[in-house]
Design goal:
Blueprint: E1 2-9, E2 18-25, E3 30-34, H1 41-48, E4 56-61, E5 64-65, H2 71-81, E6 82-86, H3 97-107, H4 112-125, H5 141-153, E7 159-163, H6 171-188, E8 191-195, H7 199-204, E9 207-212, E10 215-218
Parallel strand pairs: 3-8, 3-9, 6-7, 7-8
Antiparallel strand pairs: 1-2, 1-4, 4-5, 9-10
Helix pairs in contact: 3-4, 3-5, 4-5, 5-6
Length: 220
């Protein structure tokens, strides 16, 4: 579902941050990337998301290469095909949980009558049945991150990208969120790529790679 071929990126003089990175993630597979701060993990994630441009190489999702020269097409592609899970949740505080989860569907023009059952299904999948009318401020950190996972998957994206999804959670909530993320990815048949500093978070993934000196190496 996701292929990265020969990806290279350099910022200023010195060694490249990414030097011919190759990666393949299958549908339904969850891959974690670990590495030291400044190793290029977030840069790799941003390039895969079409938010940054590589100096060389290409990214393909479902066998279709991203066109980094067309910002409008990239934005439309992200809206349709990518689900994001962030460390900081990024739920809108003035909207209910259900309306937050519905945002990707609304941006895609899905009718309200179709949005409602899909939001209920997405919330049920992360254990938040009946939470639709609540405001994010009334939720625990773990509940907010589970709502963010529901939002990331409600539009059935091909690709899920997670940036330190447990960074703001204690160990118990982190474990629950990781289990929820893994189940949701499998159920959706999405390819998931996560960058993290957490050994526990990485251990929950199907496969772990380390980014070091511009290259990926297998951890397990």
């Amino acid at each position: 579902m996701l292929e990265v071929r020969g990806l290279a990126k350099r910022f200023g003089p010195g060694p490249p941050l990414l030097a011919g990175v190759n990666l393949a993630v299958a549908a339904g597979e969850w891959c974690a990337i670990v590495g030291e701060s400044g190793s290029g993990k977030s840069t790799l994630l941003h390039i895969v998301a079409g938010l940054d441009r590589p100096d060389a190489g290409e990214v393909l999702v479902d066998s279709k290469p991203l066109d980094y020269g067309d910002d409008e097409s990239l934005a439309l592609w992200r809206r349709r095909a990518v689900g994001f899970v962030f460390q900081a949740f990024h739920l809108l505080p003035y909207l209910g949980v259900g309306d937050n989860v519905a945002l990707p569907l609304a941006l895609l023009g899905v009718a309200a009558a179709e949005r409602e059952p899909r939001v209920r299904e997405a919330l049920a999948a992360v254990g938040l049945e009946g939470f639709g009318a609540r405001r994010p401020g009334s939720l625990s950190g773990g509940e907010m991150q589970r709502a963010a996972i529901a939002r990331a998957l409600v539009h059935r994206p091909a690709l899920v990208l997670a940036d330190e999804p447990t960074g703001n959670l204690d160990e118990a909530n982190a474990a629950a969120v990781l289990a929820c993320l893994g189940d949701a990815v499998k159920r959706a048949g999405a390819a998931a790529l996560m960058v993290t500093h957490s050994a526990m978070a990485a251990g929950a993934a199907d496969r772990v790679l380390r980014l070091s000196h511009g290259h990926l190496e297998s951890v397990r």
